[in-house]
Specification:
The protein has 647 residues and is an alpha+beta fold. The chain contains 26 helices and 17 strands. Helices cover 50% and strands 14% of the residues. The protein has a 6-stranded mixed sheet. Mean pLDDT is 90; it is low at 1-21.
Length: 647
């Protein structure tokens, strides 16, 4: 395959031809306005009726953009109206090209050979710098490294087509001669004839001999020698030239930033790692212009900031935490900061009290609000709403109910009543605010979808008795609230989980020193809950298990044992006994100190609940906890009911 145009001519000459338009609306996808411009608020319109996603109940669109000569991605949520899916988007500056791939579950629609792509225009009506070369690379991802594979293979083009689009890029933007060099060089190397390689070398020589060549331009030539031609001699020569000519330039800065970041990875102690992370962000403030190099060399400011947040939090060094987290960049670094330094210690590990975690939360909220005021967009919304329930809980646990209400309301706008923990927080807020009507409605709505905490169940009964004067009819009241469809789904789920295999014999001591064997339980239904003191989900499930235990407290043919296993602490026996007593759990705990019983039952991940029938057969085996106490207790009760019915 040969090219008719030398690369030198291609990069240095203006052409009379007009680039083929990619703006033609496809039958399934269009953009309003049809010729979108930078800073426009535009609407993406997707008609799935003639696609493989025609029956989808929910659709997301992954938008791949080419912005300032680098690839970016963003996921937009599309909403449906009259069979048409739409999403709005504010086009940022320097966004040259957008492409969509639509998804519903495991199905994709990438637009076939036409693609769902649009070039963006500037306010002057010309296509934004980079649009043409971006369009060429998008359809030749196997030629230019770093190009995302987001269009169907039917849309792929040849190396000669990529060179053609580089030509079109320079027709509109001749100043981009160095910026189109890398993709064009990859195309000529891909052609790999003596003629194409000669043209590439001639162009490299010509570019280096140009007057007033900037460092950023030389770096493009350097990249071709290093990554495309693998010419070690030329690469080393040009590197030395760049270092000598630009001792304070971007290349030297990039290499120093890389070396300093690697010190974080090489650190051998927590103190060394914390110092290295602090030094890194002190010496190298985050810059958007350096993202491409950072990504290519795995330099992660997200990693640096979560390292700082975790270790300063663990050391209770609030001043250092505040100094760094209050300036955390990029924006998404806050996602890891929130999870690692707030959610984990407060929710998972319970190592900080509500009062202790509040100052750290304030720092994060201030930084979030900074981004809210300065960088509105989908990324802010996702991070804000994803963590609003956590913020609401922390604020409510500090009795800051009015402020907590704002975050809880935001969280519920996304989750509705499908999250028992959020429902619990919202209930406490409404009760503290004295909103009786809203409180009752919230309690009933939560119970209807089986997402209630023990506190909420107790409060429902308290309100009922206050209104009626006694608890007569309370059971019927609850039954009337239950969603019949959900109850049917639960029953079907339980029936589908039925198994039938022999339960291994065991003999363990309980927390009181009594010996318990499975043989002793013949004729009874036995529920075994495998857990450990370090397992946060195990403990989170206990309130729901308590409801189930109390439901069967007068039934001698149903027994519960909480098997403490996989322990890591030497004082496990004392800790377990105290933990159960302090939390008022009516549990009999069996101490599986060697984890032999859990292994014999095939238990790996915990929490793991196993139900053994009266004949010593394992009938149910379920791992994990989904977060709702009422749902968990109902599931256990349903399992027992199924076994009692003779299944």
């Amino acid at each position: 395959m040969k090219t008719k145009q030398s690369l030198g001519a291609m990069l240095g000459t203006a052409f009379l031809g007009v680039a083929a338009s990619v703006q033609a609306q496809t039958p399934n996808f269009k953009v309003i306005p049809e010729l979108p411009k930078e800073r426009d608020t535009i609407q993406f319109v997707y008609d799935a009726r003639k696609t493989n996603l025609k029956d989808a109940q929910s659709i997301s669109g992954t938008m791949t953009g080419y912005q300032d000569f680098r690839w970016v991605q963003n996921t937009l949520k599309f909403t449906k109206k009259d069979s048409i899916w739409t999403a709005s988007y504010i086009v940022p500056e320097k966004m040259a090209l957008v492409n969509f791939a639509f998804q519903a579950d495991t199905l994709y629609d990438r637009g076939g050979d036409l693609t769902y792509s649009y070039l963006i225009s500037g306010k002057d009506g010309k296509q934004v710098s980079g649009a043409m070369i971006g369009w060429g690379m998008l359809r030749t991802p196997d030629i230019v490294p770093g190009t995302p594979f987001v269009v169907d293979k039917s849309a792929y083009k040849t190396d000669e087509i990529l060179i053609m689009w580089a030509k079109y890029e320079l027709q509109g933007h001749p100043e981009n001669r160095f910026k189109v060099l890398y993709p064009a060089a990859n195309a000529l190397k891909h052609i790999n004839t003596a003629e194409s390689l000669s043209k590439l070398q001639n162009e490299l020589n010509a570019l280096q001999s140009m007057p007033n060549v900037k460092e950023e331009d030389l770096l493009q030539v350097f990249r071709v020698y290093k990554e495309v031609l693998n010419d070690t001699v030329k690469t080393n020569e040009l590197e030395q030239k760049i270092r000598l000519q630009y001792p304070q330039g971007q290349y030297v800065k990039d290499q120093q930033r890389l070396a300093d970041f690697n010190l974080i990875q090489k650190a051998k102690t927590d103190d060394e790692r914390l110092k290295a992370a602090m030094d890194f962000v002190d010496k190298h403030p985050y810059r958007e212009s350096e993202v491409a190099f950072n990504d290519a060399h795995r330099i992660s400011y997200i990693s640096a900031y979560w390292t700082i947040s975790v270790y300063t939090s663990m050391k209770n060094d609030f001043e250092m935490y505040k100094k760094y987290v209050s300036k955390a960049e990029p924006y998404m670094s806050l996602a890891n900061v929130i999870y690692r330094s707030i959610s984990v210690p407060y929710i998972s590990q319970n190592s900080k009290t509500a009062k202790e975690i509040l100052p750290y939360t304030r720092v994060v909220l201030d930084r979030l609000n900074y981004y809210k005021d300065n960088f509105q967009g989908d990324e802010y919304s996702r991070l804000y709403y994803a963590n609003a329930a956590l913020f609401a809980k922390i604020l409510a646990d500090n009795a800051l109910f009015d402020e907590a209400f704002v975050y809880a309301t935001a969280a519920k706008s996304e989750k509705g009543f499908e999250d028992a923990s959020l429902n619990d927080t919202f209930t406490r807020i409404l009760k503290a605010q004295g909103k009786k009507k809203e409180l009752k409605e919230s309690l009933e709505a939560s119970y209807r979808v089986n997402q209630s905490s023990p506190y909420m169940l107790d409060l429902m009964k308290e309100i009922y008795i206050a209104e009626k004067g006694n608890d007569k009819g309370y059971t019927n009241y609850l039954s009337g609230l239950k969603d019949a469809n959900l109850q049917g789904e639960l029953k079907n789920k339980v029936l589908q989980q039925l198994v039938n295999k022999n339960a291994p014999a065991f003999q363990l001591k309980d927390q009181f020193g009594n010996t318990v064997t499975l043989e002793q339980q013949k004729g009874k239904i036995v529920i075994l809950d495998f857990w450990a003191s370090w397992c946060a989900p195990c403990k989170a499930a206990f309130p729901g298990m308590k409801i189930a235990v109390e439901h069967f407290k007068n039934d001698p043919n149903v027994v519960f044992y909480f098997v403490d296993t996989q322990e890591k602490r030497p004082d496990a026996k004392e800790y377990v006994a105290n933990y159960v007593k302090e939390n008022n759990y009516p549990f009999t705990v069996l101490l599986d100190t060697e984890s032999s019983v859990s292994k014999s039952f095939g238990v790996g991940a915990i929490p793991h609940k196993i139900v053994v029938d009266k004949n010593g057969k394992i009938r149910f085996s379920e791992v994990g906890y989904m977060g709702s106490a009422s749902e968990l207790s109902d599931e256990i009760i349903e399992m027992v009911g199924v076994l009692k019915s003779g299944k």
